[in-house]
Design brief:
The chain is of the alpha/beta class. The protein has 19 helices and eight strands. The protein starts with a helix and ends in a 7-residue tail after the last helix.
Length: 428
């Protein structure tokens, strides 16, 4: 990483603690990613993004602020980025995927809080994440009780807007969500001083839709028998999508897809013939949480799809681009975002249908249901998910884990045994 010390100092970061993080991340990335054989050349861009993750993009955000722009830090795929960009601001993801940040979160949160929440709060309070330091406003949501209380802590010194997500999907709930988006639009307009005109919102909808189209194109290559890219490389790209400039990200991802098209044509695969195909479903895997993908793909299998927020939930379903008034556009946004099947909803049969559909589309041999420790939503829903998957005749393995490596060998044993019992199903 280049020298960004002056920038980090200006952000009030804890440089001593941050240096410790910067020492750990390159080694972890190298062990997981740079040990792979025959990676697509276009992955060099995403390697660069990770190597400069606390440098290049933060510097761009600061430059945007110097020109009078605002930066909104977001935590969840339910927050409509389109509204932010339509107001001339930038939306960025925030830190939350490393054990490094968990102890900082545990200073103010119960130990029995999920690691994603603890890591996010720790990254902010310990002053080791530039994105948390840069954001002019945080945008939270009510997907779980742990988050709702964490927002109160994070709101103590940074403006916080919380979007109230309905817990059901009746017509009145979708209407209520449209009202929440309208309230959010008003808050963004007030905070930025910029009016969201229908033309601007239309441009922003297309901007984010184009990113979704690029992600959908990328994921389609994982449906092939010969897999031209690893699952953990796709996971990395999905994680970077939350941070990167959307226009640049879309362009670079389409460039990668052009290379993958040639690989498919030339029958190039990064896995041996007959490799077992695995779906991961469950809680999101925020950067740099690469543990499960790495274990699966060094245990004789390939991850071919993720039914996660760092997966299909992020990009599936486009916002209708034909609407011409702000009210109509808000309605289209509400419809699209309410199609995301988070475990916060009841009933949530839509998520089970998604899992079974994806299992067929990607021709998976088995499913691993992933639950971050202390996430009661996905843990409880795992009962119905795993039952439905078994009834469909698909082998399933339920896993509970956290950000530490303490369970890595145990997971490797369990996953290895699971892969071994999947048989020798061939895909055509």
């Amino acid at each position: 990483m280049a020298d960004y010390k002056e920038m980090w100092e200006s952000l009030g970061m804890n440089l001593e603690l941050h240096d410790q993080l910067c020492e750990v991340l390159p080694e972890a990335f190298g062990d997981v990613y740079l040990t792979q054989d025959n990676r697509p050349e276009s992955m060099d861009y995403y390697n660069f993004v990770v190597s400069e993750i606390h440098g290049v993009r933060p510097a761009e955000l600061i430059e945007h602020q110097k020109k009078g722009g605002k930066v909104f830090g977001t935590f969840c795929v339910y927050v409509p980025d389109e509204i932010v960009f339509a107001a001339g601001a930038i939306a960025t993801g925030l830190c939350g995927g490393s054990q490094f940040w968990v102890p900082g979160g545990e200073k103010v949160l119960p130990t029995s809080t999920c690691p994603l929440i603890k890591a996010s709060v720790g990254a902010r309070l310990d002053k080791t994440c530039p994105f948390f330091r840069i954001a002019d406003m945080y945008v939270g949501e009510t997907t779980c009780d742990g988050k709702k209380k964490a927002w109160e802590i994070l709101a103590e010194d940074v403006p916080m807007h919380v979007m109230d997500i309905p817990q059901m999907k009746r017509p009145k709930d979708i209407a209520a969500w449209a009202d929440e988006i309208k309230i959010f639009l008003g808050k963004v307009e007030e905070f930025t001083g910029n009016k969201v005109a229908p033309e601007k919102l239309a441009d922003a909808i297309k901007l984010i839709n184009d990113k979704r189209r690029a992600m959908e194109r990328l994921y389609a290559f994982r449906k092939h028998e010969n897999l031209p890219i690893s699952g953990k490389d796709v996971l990395l790209i999905s994680q970077i999508a939350f941070y990167d400039d959307p226009t640049r990200f879309t362009s670079m991802t389409n460039k990668l897809c052009d290379e993958l098209e040639k690989r498919v044509k030339d029958n190039v695969s990064v896995f041996p013939a007959g490799t077992k195909r695995i779906m991961l479903t469950g809680t999101p895997l925020a950067i740099p949480n690469w543990k499960l993908h790495h274990i699966v793909e060094t245990s004789g299998a390939a991850v071919v799809v993720e039914e996660m927020c760092t997966g299909t939930r992020y990009f599936e379903n486009l916002v209708d681009e034909t609407k011409t008034s702000v009210d109509e556009q808000i309605g289209a946004l509400a419809d699209r975002y309410m199609s995301i099947n988070c475990a916060c909803f009841t009933p949530n049969e839509g998520r089970i249908k998604d899992i079974l559909r994806l299992a067929e589309e990607y021709e998976v041999d088995g499913i691993i249901d992933v639950n971050l420790k202390f996430c009661s939503l996905y843990d409880t829903e795992g009962y119905k998910v795993e039952r439905a998957v078994k009834e469909a005749g698909i082998p399933v393995l339920g896993i509970e884990t956290d950000y530490t490596d303490q369970d890595a060998e145990q997971l490797r044993t369990r996953i290895g045994a699971f892969v071994e019992m999947l048989g020798t199903k061939q895909h055509v």
